[in-house]
Amino acid sequence: MGNEELSEFEKQRLANIAERDALLKKLTMDAQSSGLFPPKMPKPAAKDQSRSKKKKTPVKKIKEEDLQPRRTSSRLRGIAAESEVAKRKLEEETEAQQAAERLKRVRKSDDFAFNEMVVYGQKLSGESLIGVDVVTKGVAMPYQRTFGDDDIQKTADKDLKALRKEMSELKLWEAWEPNRIKVTPERVYTMTFHPTETKPLIFAGDKLGNLGILDASQERPIPIKSETDEDEDDEDPDPILTTVKPHTRTISSMYIHPSKPTSLYTASYDSSIREMDLEKSTSVEKYAPESTSDDVPISGIDMALDDPNVLYWTTLYGEFGRYDTRAPRSKPNSVTTWQLSEKKIGGFSLYPTQSHYFATASLDRSMRLWDLRMLERKKADVVPVGEHYSRLSVSHAAFNSAGQIATSSYDDTLKIYDLKAKGVVSWDAGHTLSEDELRPDTVVRHNCQTGRWVTILRPQWQQNPQSCIQRFCIGNMNRFVDVYSGSGDQLAQLGGDGITAVPAVAVFHRSKNWVAGGTASGKICLWM
């Protein structure tokens, strides 16, 4: 129409539209005032619209033990909003939930049999776990191999070449694939072999206090095929194993004294050390703080080779403790502790042949060497024999029988300190070393960036090797286990088909060339 005046028809049409809109608005207002329907809500912003179109997150199944009391509406219970009754009710519910969570983490101080704490696996029916034979006969690029046959062939030293060949020929246990050997429900945190040479008996402790036990001498049964249905799958049973729960929190360390092969000592973040009788299938608390409310997480445990009665341990609060199990805990001074670090001690070990010396690894980036004789003389202001600092925290310090200390650190190095070469055998009490004198003799580059979901990598020596060459193993983030000599030469890189996770917790048998690795899914790899 341009600038022309509106026709009479158009004027009447617009007037009719305005009159209709006014009528609808009036009717809507009347309906709202009478409560027939709620007022129209404003449209959500564009940001909210895009959010509502996102795919819904699938609902996760909640474990029965994680269920919390469901909150109910105060209005439905007849309680006025913001009233003192409502606030008090909410506080009571919160306190009850917190108390229930604390109760789950409190250690169990009573004695019990294995069958009373079985999580899954075989029950023991009163039989000895380790058997008579053990008691009577004694004790880079992701996933790309960085050590192999070519490195062995290039070795000039005959003894080193022979050992490299021997260690590299270790094979995965063929009875079952690693992904079928699940010994703990949660992430493996610590492992140990039983010292017996009659069969590979492995113990694994996980993050929630479960202890898995695997006898790797068992043979895989021949699958039984059904005669009635040829298409039916063959019965293929999993390996026989036992999983019990002696602790309420992470099992951080384990030890079996070679002169006392029926006892397994387990240390835990629940502040306790328990002795498990493998012959009687029982568990007894050997050490813990006087009150169950005292939280002193234990990070490591060790014993002297010449004394199977004294326990040594470290804590996440930087303490070092000693207790003679023959003395009642109620007796004054039966337990002795020293504050050795302001930050957590992640790992420690005694010098096997001179147990008054021990090494600690700490979050404060230090590896320290201590003399127990000096600690006994001076309770306060204790001074180490020597200390060395790394660029980042040190995860573990492991002593071998030849006087060497191997450490792993978050600066991606393995360091080897040779104290025997420094004359440790002839040191008198009070001997000290400067940091320059305690520098590592060998440094090996090794990826130690485990992240949050993989257990920290720690070196572990073979305590009684059957040759003059010392050796230790450590997990490899490329899903291998690396084996090194005491001089830092790599001896082997153990792998195999079916390893789907990092065998972060790697351990050597005391004397046999058996190596085991534990994963974050609670499974075990075994090389023999």
Task: Report on this structure.
The chain is an alpha+beta fold. The chain has one domain (105-221, 236-527): 7 Propeller (Methylamine Dehydrogenase, Chain H), CATH 2.130.10.10. The chain is 16% helix and 29% strand. The strands form 7 sheets. A 5-stranded antiparallel sheet has the order 1-10-9-8-7, with no helix packed on it. The chain is globular, with a radius of gyration of 32 Å. Residues 228-238 have a biased composition (Acidic residues). This is DNA damage-binding protein CMR1. Residues 31-94, 218-243 are annotated as: Disordered.
**Rounded radius of gyration (Å):** 32 Å
In terms of structural class, how would the helical and strand content be classed? alpha+beta
| CATH-level-2 architecture | 7 Propeller
Tally of contiguous helical segments? 7
> Distance between the terminal alpha carbons, to the nearest Å?
97 Å
- Count the beta strands: 29
Q: Which CATH class?
A: Mainly Beta
Spatial strand order of the main sheet: 1-10-9-8-7
Roughly what fraction of the amino acids lie in strands? Answer: 25-35%
Output the CATH topology. Answer: Methylamine Dehydrogenase, Chain H
On the 0 to 100 scale, the average pLDDT is 85
Enumerate the spans where pLDDT stays under 50 for 5 or more consecutive residues: 41-68, 132-139
Helix content: 10-25%
Q: What is the assembly state of the chains in this entry?
A: single chain
CATH superfamily: YVTN repeat-like/Quinoprotein amine dehydrogenase
